[in-house]
Amino acid sequence: MRHLNRLNKLSKPADQRKALLRSIVRGLILNESVKTTHPRAKASQRLAEQLVSYAKRGDLHSRRLALKVIPEADVVHKLFAEIGPRYTDRPGGFTQVIRAGIRRGDSTQMAILRWTE
Q1: Alpha-carbon distance 106 to 69, whole Å?
Q2: pLDDT value for 5
Q3: Environment class of 7 (CB within 10 Å of its CB; exposed 0-12, middle 13-18, buried 19+)
Q4: H-helix or E-strand containing 31?
Q5: Of 81, 85, 29, nearest to 56 (Cα)?
Q6: Torsions phi, psi of 94, nearest 5?
Q7: CATH topology for 14-115?
Q8: Average pLDDT for residues 87-100, to the nearest whole number?
Q9: CA Rg, the chain, in Å?
């Protein structure tokens, strides 16, 4: 049984995992899509969905919570100014993970994480 096992640890210590997910979500916000391994895309999808929920709310407290996760003001500004207003009428499902084949070097399943239209 998988009781209380919600987090995919990605074979990394907590600080490295947190930094990895931050950088993937940062790239998603700045570039609109990011190509990474499938488990990393699924793990960062959860964080990206939470940040868009903050951006939809749009108040000062939500902005501060987003800055706690991604401590770069320009990235958070783009999230609140451009990405959040896109999904005001959508209740969830702001990102999608699309499988992108297998990486040649180590046969890892790759995926593209991007915003939904």
Answers
A1: 31
A2: 84
A3: exposed
A4: helix 14-31
A5: 85
A6: -80, -20
A7: 50s Ribosomal Protein L17; Chain: A, (3.90.1030)
A8: 95
A9: 15
Region 86-98: mean pLDDT is 95
**Sole residue written with tokens 């969830």:** 92
Q: Which two tokens stand for residue 13?
A: 């210590």
pLDDT band at 83 (very low <50, low <70, confident <90, very high): very high
In SS3 terms, 49-103 reads as HHHHHHHHHCCHHHHHHHHHHCCCHHHHHHHHHHHHHHCCCCCCCCEEEEEEEEC
b/e code 23-56 from CB counts within 10 Å (16+ = b): ebbbbbbeeeebebbbebbebbbebbeebbbbbb
- Per-residue pLDDT at 16 exceeds 90: yes
pLDDT at 18 over 90: yes
Placement of tokens 């000062």 in the chain: 60
Q: What angle do CA 105, 108, 113 make, to 5 degrees?
A: 120
Q: Is 20 helix (H, G, I), strand (E, B) or coil?
A: helix
What pLDDT does residue 4 have?
83
